[in-house]
């Protein structure tokens, strides 16, 4: 859910990539699949629905990294807070999931959250709050 102020955009992958993500991103090693795909766990989404879609690293990408990038978000202030809640599943001990922030005036990406090495084979949820005085991507 991408929450900017009182408006909350729910982001799922039932028909395609959700509006918050760049459409060009899916070629970067991510595939849209569900629990019935025969690709191994997870066998359902975070609600236990085996026909609901989620994004997964393609099997060829197991040993390398892939990026998902959002569209441009507007600056935040006291009235316009940005909160992003996402569900994730890490199926490898060596896997690391990183959330980064890139301001449009900067070339560098600042890591604002990460998790790694906890092979728990279960969906977990995390919420991050973003503060940026200029336009940014996540």
UniProtKB/TrEMBL annotation:
Pfam families: MAM
InterPro entries tied to this protein: ConA-like_dom_sf (IPR013320), MAM_dom (IPR000998), MAM_domain-containing (IPR051560)
Domain (MAM) ranges: 9-138
GO terms under cellular component: membrane
Protein name: MAM and LDL-receptor class A domain-containing protein 1
């Amino acid at each position: 859910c991408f929450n900017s102020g009182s408006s909350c955009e729910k982001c799922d992958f039932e028909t395609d990539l959700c509006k918050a993500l760049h459409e060009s991103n899916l070629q970067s090693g991510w595939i849209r699949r569900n629990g019935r795909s025969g690709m191994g766990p997870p066998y359902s989404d975070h609600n236990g629905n085996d026909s609901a879609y989620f994004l997964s690293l393609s099997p060829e990408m197991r040993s390398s990294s892939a990026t998902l990038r959002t569209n441009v978000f507007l600056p935040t202030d006291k009235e316009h807070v940005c909160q992003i809640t996402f569900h994730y599943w890490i199926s490898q001990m060596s896997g690391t999931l990183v959330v980064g922030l890139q301001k449009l005036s900067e070339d560098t990406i600042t890591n604002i959250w990460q998790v790694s090495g906890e092979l728990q084979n279960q969906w977990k949820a995390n919420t991050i709050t973003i503060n940026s005085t200029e336009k940014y991507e996540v």
